Amino acid sequence: MESDTYLTIRENSQGMFKEKGSRFLSFAYPVTSPDEIKPIIDSIRKEHHDARHHCYAYMLGRSRELWRVNDDGEPSGTAGKPILGQINSFRLTNILIVVTRYFGGTLLGVSGLMNAYRSAAESVIRNSEIIELAVLEHFEISFAYESVNDVMKILKEENIFQSGQTFDLVCQMTIKCRESASERVLHKLSRINGLTINKIADE
To answer: Which CATH number fits domain 5-132: 2.40.30.10, 3.30.230.30, 3.40.50.620, 3.30.750.24?
Structure first.
C-alpha cells in the first residue's frame, strides 16, 4: 500500500558551490503546482540578471510523478539532471531547485559541470529543513444539532482538524483526515443517525 506521507522542505533556502572561478548559487523552494515555477524563476533571473545560466529541476506530487529539468543553455544533461538526481537522492517532492551560475572564465567540461550542479543542489538541500507531511483528505459533514456531542467525541478521539463550523438546527463543518485513517473515521461518523458526508476535491 502506498504511504500517505512524503518528504519536502519547510521553507526557502540557499546554498553555494565554487569551482575554478565559477560560482553556483542554489535556491530551493517548497512548491505544490507547476504554476508556481515560472514566477520564481523569473524573479531569480531578474535579481541575478548578470548570471550566465539559471538551471533548474522540480518534483511534484506525493507519488513523485511530475517532474521537469532545464539546462538553460548548458550542455544537454549537465545541469537539470544532476539537480534532479539530488532531489531523488533525498526522496523529496513538492520542491523546486534553481542553480544560478556566474561564469568564472574557465570551462569545466561535461563531468565538471555535472559535479558542480550536483554539488550546488546537494548544498541547498543540506541547508534545508526536511519535513515529513501526511496526505490529507477533506470532507464536509452535515448533521443534526442533537448529534454535536457524538460528532465531537469522534473527532477528538481521532485527532481530526475541523474548520468552517456552523452550528444550527443542521450543523456543518469541514474536516481534514489523514488518508490512511479516513476509512475508519468515516465509518465511525456514518453510524451517527442523519449525518451526511461529502468529499471535497483537492485544490
So the answer is: 3.30.230.30
